[in-house]
Write a structure and sequence with these properties.
The chain is of the alpha/beta class and 276 residues long. The chain folds into 2 domains: 211 residues, 3-Layer(aba) Sandwich (Rossmann fold); 58 residues, no CATH class. It has 9 helices and 9 strands. Strands 1, 2, 3, 4, 5, 6, 7, 8 and 9 form a 9-stranded mixed sheet that branches. Helix 2 packs across helix 3. It is globular, with a radius of gyration of 18 Å. 45% of the residues are buried.
Length: 276
C-alpha cells in the first residue's frame, strides 16, 4: 500500500491529509471525515481494509490532528473538503462522515451533489437540527463537562467526553479500554487544546430543512449505546432521506468504526458494493 501525505494550503490554515491506495486500486474513492472528538487516525482500520481496492482519502479538519491554523478567519468546511479532494485529484467519491464529519458530508452533498457518489452517515450532526432536551446520565455528564471546562481542567474534560462519546452514557465508565481508548484520549486532547481556527460559515438554509433534497445513495449507521437523541435523529434521517439504508451496530456507542472496526467495515463494504 502506498501512502501520499499532503499539506493542503487553504485560507488561514494548512490541512494535513493522507491518500492511501494499492497500485491498481480501481474502486470508487472513499473520503473519510472524522468526528469532533477525533482526527483522521480514527479511520486507520478502515484505511487498512479498503485501500487494497479503493483510493482512501482522509484529513484533519481545522483545529484537529496535524492541521495547523495560520490565522483565525471565517471558513467553510465544505470548501476545505473540496480543496483536499482536488489536491488528491479525486473528482467524485463516497463520503463517510461520523458525527461532525457527517455534517460536513451532508452539507457538501447538498452544495455539489455531482461530486458525491454515495453517503455513509455515522450518527451525524445535522446543521439546523432541533436542540435536544438532555436528561439522566447524558445531562449529568454534560454538566460535569461544563464544570471541568469552567475550571480549565482539560484532562478531566477529555475523560468525561470519553465516557459520553466512546463508552456511551448508558454504559459503565471505561467500557471501551485498550488502544481504542488511548487513541480517543490522544486525538481529543489535541482538539481540546487547539487554537480557535475561526468562525465556520454555515450554509443557508440549514441542512435539516433540506434532507429530502439528498439524491444520492445513503447509509445511516449508528450504535445502540449512543446518546438517545442521536439514535432518534438517525431514525428520522432514514425516514426523510429517500431510499436511505439503515444499520445499527449493537454494543457500540458514538464511534463504531473505532470501537468495532470489523463489523463497521462489513456494513460499509456491503454499501459500497451496492453502488456498483
Amino acid at each position: 500500500m502506498s501512502t501520499l501525505t499532503m499539506q493542503v494550503r487553504v485560507d488561514g490554515a494548512v490541512l494535513a491529509a493522507q491518500l492511501d491506495a494499492t497500485g491498481g486500486a480501481a474502486g470508487v474513492p472513499l473520503v473519510f471525515l472524522h468526528a469532533g472528538v477525533a482526527d483522521r487516525r480514527m479511520w486507520q482500520a478502515q484505511c487498512e481494509a479498503f485501500a487494497p481496492a479503493h483510493p482512501v482519502l482522509r484529513y484533519d479538519r481545522r483545529g484537529f490532528g496535524e492541521s495547523r491554523t495560520l490565522q483565525s478567519t471565517p471558513y467553510s468546511r465544505e470548501s476545505d473538503l473540496w480543496a483536499v479532494m482536488d489536491a488528491a485529484c479525486i473528482e467524485r467519491a463516497v463520503l463517510v462522515g461520523c458525527s461532525q464529519g457527517g455534517r460536513v458530508a451532508i452539507d457538501a452533498t447538498l452544495s455539489q451533489p455531482r461530486r458525491v457518489q454515495g453517503l455513509v452517515l455515522v450518527a451525524p450532526a445535522v446543521g439546523g437540527a432541533p436542540e435536544p432536551e438532555l436528561a439522566g446520565r447524558v445531562q449529568a455528564l454534560a454538566a460535569e463537562i461544563d464544570g471541568a471546562s469552567a475550571r480549565q481542567d482539560v484532562d478531566a474534560v477529555n475523560e468525561l467526553e470519553a465516557q459520553l462519546w466512546l463508552d456511551g452514557p448508558s454504559a459503565a465508565p471505561g467500557r471501551v479500554a485498550g488502544p481504542a481508548r488511548a487513541l480517543f484520549l490522544a486525538m481529543n486532547d489535541i482538539a481540546l487544546r487547539a487554537a480557535d481556527p475561526g468562525e465556520e460559515v454555515e450554509p443557508a438554509p440549514p441542512a435539516w430543512q433540506r434532507l429530502e433534497e439528498l439524491d444520492v445513495p445513503v447509509l445511516v449507521l449508528w450504535g445502540d449505546l449512543d446518546l438517545p437523541h442521536l439514535r432518534s435523529r438517525c431514525e428520522e434521517l432514514v425516514q426523510r432521506i429517500r431510499g436511505a439504508q439503515r444499520a445499527v451496530l449493537e454494543g457500540t456507542a458514538h464511534l463504531p468504526g473505532l470501537e468495532a472496526p470489523e463489523r463497521f467495515n462489513a456494513e460499509l463494504r456491503r454499501f459500497v458494493a451496492s453502488l456498483a
